[in-house]
UniProtKB/TrEMBL annotation:
Protein name per the record: UDP-glucose 6-dehydrogenase
Family label: Belongs to the UDP-glucose/GDP-mannose dehydrogenase family.
InterPro entries found in the cross-reference section: 6-PGluconate_DH-like_C_sf, NAD(P)-bd_dom_sf, UDP-Glc/GDP-Man, UDP-Glc/GDP-Man_DH_C, UDP-Glc/GDP-Man_DH_C_sf, UDP-Glc/GDP-Man_DH_dimer, UDP-Glc/GDP-Man_DH_N, UDPglc_DH_bac
GO MF entry, a single one: oxidoreductase activity
Enzyme class: oxidoreductase
Superkingdom field: Bacteria
Domain named UDP-glucose/GDP-mannose dehydrogenase C-terminal: residues: 324-425
Any Pfam family: UDPG_MGDP_dh_N
Keywords: NAD, Oxidoreductase
E.C. number: 1.1.1.22
Recorded metabolic or biological pathway in which this protein acts: Nucleotide-sugar biosynthesis; UDP-alpha-D-glucuronate biosynthesis; UDP-alpha-D-glucuronate from UDP-alpha-D-glucose: step 1/1
Substrates-to-products reaction catalysed: UDP-alpha-D-glucose + 2 NAD(+) + H2O = UDP-alpha-D-glucuronate + 2 NADH + 3 H(+)
Length: 444
């Protein structure tokens, strides 16, 4: 089937390449000419394991192409995925829908005949209904654009796998219209995936929009739950990692997303829970989500707690000390530094007068762009040169499996702060290091 994917960032570029991988003819559309050109040249403009192979294979097969021209999109296909960004507003907790709106504003007047737009971006409940009206006004007489919403659940670092083997597909349609036509088209696009037994949840617009933000609110809550427990563990000397293992054995709870530490960041969870709270206020249900404010507060507090822990480890004050920060991406297997806890901590330590040296295996270019005033090193060892404290802020495998002996001769003091509770504490202590972990003791 022929289709376009509008917005070719983490979500859209992955989606475009994966739809081509399923055998479809795909045109990726982005307003950023550099991004479109790089993708067309077979270069993924961000780090995502496995994506480069899928991209190149499908470009070479002639099933995938990129453009910046909305007219080309309107002429190329009658099915259009919408995956543009929905960042937090500059002021307030609400969601900035300007990219979504300008994407449909550019497309709708150009289409002729019957078209289907499949929204994938994460949006506040009510967005699809409002956009459908906007599109109807812009569409030429005699033409029609049907709008459905199918939120995306992929995880950065596993984006290809999550797109081709999702846990479920959700399709929300206009509750006042017969949805059999659009549902048939969507089922045909995902035929291979659905035939493998993937659950297909069909519902209305509002429910589909809420599924996505509810899922992210739940995940954020789970992380902040264990981090709240870790604050108690810190005070009483209990081991929150062992506690998480023990409660995680309960099938009703599960061990995943129960890792205490520096908390969540990135381009999704923080802005999604805030956007959810803002919309709940607008629809008169603000009270229902008041707990998310606490989830957000617990999460933000972890960053300040790590800064304090590093100060303690440095002898009470970081002024004039050398601090190595290992990790800048908001999580491993990604180069995404949007709302990165690691860089936030690095910035706070620099403000307190430390000389901070940051290293990340994949996120250096993005970090330099976002935090140009920090110092960056070319390797973990280089970042640790003459360090008074080494801080692990992102749990990249390269840091988790780092050998203490390799850093022992490089640093000024053998002090390491484990912000992600991911190190083998016994091995570091056996090598003569002082190891402290965010969230209380690690009794290995
Ligand atoms: P991104 O910033 O990486 O990508 C957005 C892209 O849209 C950019 O390349 C931008 O140039 C392009 N764009 C903006 N306005 C446009 C327009 N009018 N026409 C065409 N292109 C336009 O963002 P992302 O991380 O890919 O997120 C996109 C959406 O997907 C967001 O709603 C996000 O919440 C959601 N989402 C993201 C993830 C993830 O892991 N990144 C997972 C699930 C859902």
């Amino acid at each position: 089937m022929k289709m376009t994917v509008i917005g070719c960032g983490y979500l859209g570029a992955t989606h475009a390449a994966c739809m081509a991988e399923l055998g479809h003819d795909v045109l990726g559309v982005d307003v950023d000419p550099e991004k479109a050109a790089r993708l067309q040249a077979g270069e993924v403009p961000f780090f995502e394991p496995g994506l480069s192979d899928v991209l190149r294979r499908n470009l070479a097969a002639g099933r995938l192409r990129f453009t910046t021209d909305p007219r080309e999109a309107a002429d190329f296909a009658t099915v259009h995925f919408l995956g543009v960004g929905t960042p937090q507003l500059r002021r307030g907790y609400g969601v900035d829908l300007s990219h979504v709106e300008s994407a449909v504003d550019a497309l709708a007047p150009l289409v002729r005949g019957e078209h289907l737009v499949i929204g994938k971006s994460t949006v506040p409940v009510g967005t699809a209904a409002a956009l459908a009206q906007r599109i109807a006004v812009l569409t030429a007489p005699g033409s029609h654009v049907e709008l459905v919403w199918s939120p995306e659940f992929l995880r950065e670092g596993f984006a290809v796998e999550d797109t081709l083997e999702p846990d479920r597909l959700v399709l929300g349609t206009d509750p006042d219209r017969d949805d059999s036509g659009p549902a048939r088209v969507v089922a045909e696009i995902y035929r291979e995936i659905l035939e493998s037994g993937t659950p297909f949840v069909r519902t209305d617009w509002a429910t589909a929009e809420l599924v996505k933000v509810s899922a992210n609110a739940f995940l954020a809550t789970k992380i902040s739950f264990i981090n709240a427990i870790s604050e108690i563990c810190e005070n009483v000397g209990a081991d929150v990692s062992t506690l998480a293992d023990a409660i995680g054995y309960d099938g009703r709870i599960g061990r995943r997303f129960l890792n205490a530490g520096l908390g969540f960041g990135g381009g999704c969870l923080p802005k999604d829970i805030r956007g959810f709270m803002a919309r709940a206020d607008e629809v008169g249900a603000g009270r229902a989500l008041r707990f998310l404010r606490e989830v957000d507060a617990i999460n933000t507090r972890r960053r300040a707690a790590l800064v304090d822990l590093v100060s303690d480890a440095a002898g009470g004050d970081v002024l004039g000390t050398n601090i190595a920060i290992l990790g800048a991406a908001f999580k491993p297997e990604s180069d995404d530094v949007r709302d990165s806890p690691a860089l936030n901590v690095a910035g706070q330590l620099a403000l307190r007068g430390a000389s901070v040296s940051v290293f990340d295996p994949k996120a250096m270019a993005n970090s330099r762009r976002l935090y140009p005033t920090l110092d960056y090193a070319d390797s973990a060892a280089a970042a640790c040169e003459d360090a008074d404290v080494v801080v692990v802020a992102t749990e990249w495998a390269e840091f988790v499996h780092m050998l203490p002996e390799e850093l022992s001769g490089v640093v000024r003091a053998k002090v390491i702060v484990d912000g992600r509770r991911c190190l083998d504490a016994a091995a570091w202590r056996a090598a003569g290091w002082r190891l402290v972990a965010l969230g209380g003791p690690m009794r290995v």
